[in-house]
Specification:
Elements: E1 2-4, H1 12-15, E2 26-31, E3 37-40, H2 42-46, H3 49-52, H4 56-62, E4 74-81
Antiparallel strand pairs: 1-4, 2-3, 2-4
Bound molecules: zinc ion (ZN).
């Protein structure tokens, strides 16, 4: 079960680099245009040396919507693995 958490903290994405993320944490991107959400594969990004020290707000600027024909800007949210239940998933 994953819950949304750190996106409410000020500047969380300016102070954290990809390397700082613990395994089990995930990033979810939400398109500002079409509201499509998709998860960002952190492990895949960490395999690329130039990405490892990227701050999450920089990653946010580089990430674009994965929906076909959209490619809009996204907002990143951090998902923590958590035993608390009740996150029913998304805003839809
Ligand atoms: Zn989109």
């Amino acid at each position: 079960m994953f819950i949304l958490c750190s996106h409410l903290e000020m500047n969380w994405n300016k102070e954290q680099q990809l390397l700082d993320l613990e395994s089990g944490e995930r990033l979810e991107a939400t398109c500002k245009i079409c509201r499509h959400t998709f998860s960002v594969d952190i492990d895949e990004l960490l395999e690329r040396e130039e990405m490892q020290h990227l701050y999450l707000d920089q990653l946010e600027k580089r990430t674009v919507c994965s929906a076909r024909g959209c490619g809009g800007p996204v907002i990143l949210a951090q998902l923590h693995q958590n035993e608390v239940e009740g996150f029913a998933g998304g805003l839809a």
